[in-house]
Amino acid sequence: MRVLPVMISVSSLILTFAAFVLCPQDKPAESTGLFDVPAQEIARRRQPLPHAVDKTGKKPSATAPQERPFEPGIIRDNVALVTELNTRWEESRLSLVTNFELPATPPPGATIVGVSPAEVMVQQWIDEGTASGHHGILYDNRDRDHSNLNRKKFPQLAFVEYDGAAKKCGADWGMRIGQAFNLPTFGNSSTAQVNSPLWRSNPRMVTYDDLLMRITCNEFLNNQMYCYPEHNDFDRKHGDVYPANAPYWVISQGSSGSDQPFMEAIALTLAALRPEVRRTLVETHSLMGAIQMLLRRSQKSVQSDDDYYSGKAHPVVFQASELDTFRMVQMAHELTIDTLPSMVRIRVLEEDLGVPGRDYFHPFAAERLFDTPMAVARVYRTVSHQRRMVVEARAAGIDARLSGFRWVVLQGDPEKIRIRPMGSNGAKAELIFYWHPMAPIPGMTGMQSNRIDIGVFADHGKSPSLPAFITSFTLANEDRTYVNGRIQSIDYGAVGISQRYVDPTIDVPKRWRDEYQYSSENQLLGWRRLVPQAEPQEFAADGRLIFKKDAAGKPTEYRNVTYEAIADKQQLSVLKMVIAPK
User: Fold this and answer.
1) Model confidence, pTM
2) Per CATH, which fold does 343-473 belong to?
């Protein structure tokens, strides 16, 4: 037997992507390897997963990148060229940051070239001097012009380009965690991982890992945001397979090019902001939070505050048919310093966590997906019928004065979650999640999800805040039975259920059924495991294997067990139990 790498290695996850189109080859260029540093630094900082194998053969750097010659770049003819000279590692951001100096004044001429009502209106505001335009904003395309924003439509926007050394390292391709800019940046990459057991959209490449998500959040709070297609991650075949919802990106329904309407809407909205408003949002690290709020509040189905404080406004994947760009730019232009939205920060104070090998079966502790300031995600693995969390919220941004916080179920069966706000302004809440099976997504025919989303909003009576998210994700390939809140059985091999797709970076499939046993006082005694083509096994309540019994059926010998991901005959990763020696 050999251990199969269930989770992709960090370097290949970040640097190697398959796209919807063939990736063009670039000419060799002189490079010192600077653009490989993010993957090396991330690998150096994270603990290796027990069943993650790095096949690249590259050793992580032992020390942080050394000082190099550095000089900020100049934006010429609306081109911002990324080179090694104007890029350096910034430890505080855990990212390579490319720096540009801006011309003192924007180039002359129209900022927006278009005839739609939104385009005409934004240009009119710019001509009047009440809108900021695009001076000081970067647009970064990372699919080599496969789904590029129209340069002719936005002649004042600075388009990021990459020199030969950067391209040689793939710096211009896919989702580049740990690569950013000193100026506010929006961008896109119509790419995804395809033709692989690890198929996935760009956002799902990072949602399994706390460090990658913390870096993603850090860049969002440094005024950077990208759009990505969902490409098979949110379709009827498998349903909603995202293990978490987060506000750090915009995911568009569809594949290549589906991000275009959102990119144009974001470009126009950035241009529509009043100069003093945009400047304040940038200084308070709230620019992309405001853009996210405006996108969500202006959707066609979101006509009231009640709509905004519901799941209608906060899907994991956005539909182009819901875009109302004219309304979005109007709302952006109406923002003033006094009406800017707050930003919500959250942190978990207390929570119930299961014990691997007793409460769930996995090679390591794996209920926490990530903890970031604006999104927290958990995988519901424990056999317990409920799990408890206490979460604290606070407000940040230009106006942190609040009348209170709102805690709202955005997705999932409200009967499967109990929210108890705590304190005078609801800045804390006790959350009780009950085990929740796959359920339909309201308003989306044929779509189902295993995820509950809770939104936390800061309410100061002015502009609504972007929510922070708390999510709970169950595994679609399990069939559970509870009676009076006690687990009775879990079938991991049930026909029609065990074949359901679950992200292999989240779960290792199992091929057995556990039947739980209780005393007359309803105390858990253990469980009986039924494995196909094998003798039944019995386990004590603490997870030890009952190895021998006496004539009366009383256990006399136990063995400790562990669980490992092993390749089966089909070379697929499955979970196997390993019995410790006596």
Assistant:
1) 0.92
2) Immunoglobulin-like (2.60.40)
